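Cross-check.
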Amino acid sequence: MAQLVARLICNEEVSGPNPLGSTTFVMIYFKDETIIKASPERVYYFLTHIDKLYKQWHPKDHVFLHAIYGAIDKMGSIVHFFEWINRFPLYLVVQTTKVEKNNYLEYGLVFPFSLLKLGMGSFKIEKISDEETKLIAYVEGGYNTPIIGPALDFLTRKAISFDAIRKHMKEEGENIKKYLENYTGS
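Predicted model, tokenized:
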């Protein structure tokens, strides 16, 4: 019953495997794909040096991203960031949970929120050719508890528009594409 209520409230995928193949229960997920005329190595470099390129990624909405512990391309590194999505302020502290050089980066919320499995995100980098790459940005979140979970997801949806999240992710994809396709530096 809770899944049906969540489906009606959120109008998003609410059960079963998520789009990237995991079998974890997902209340809400967002996925954006961007084709970029750049090698997978250049896309990966951008993402693993995002602390220096965060404002270029989304000049209007991104405020800061700083590494707290370790290098972003290493398992266990921790970063905190602040951005606006529409008029909603978003501040998170996340930890790198999986790294496959030039292919995949995954992050999740830090302790104690990691115990609640409230969300995660990832970047999948797929080589199309030597100079063309598909970047798949993925974010999932929600509360995986019967009855209370759908109610909390409903409140989340009221606080921030899911359309605004989709728009923000699409703009990030367009901005990384513009940056990498037009960058002429070394």
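The beta strands are 28-36, 62-69, 78-85, 88-100, 104-109, 119-129, 132-141. The first strand starts at residue 28 and ends at 36. Passed to J.P. for a second look.
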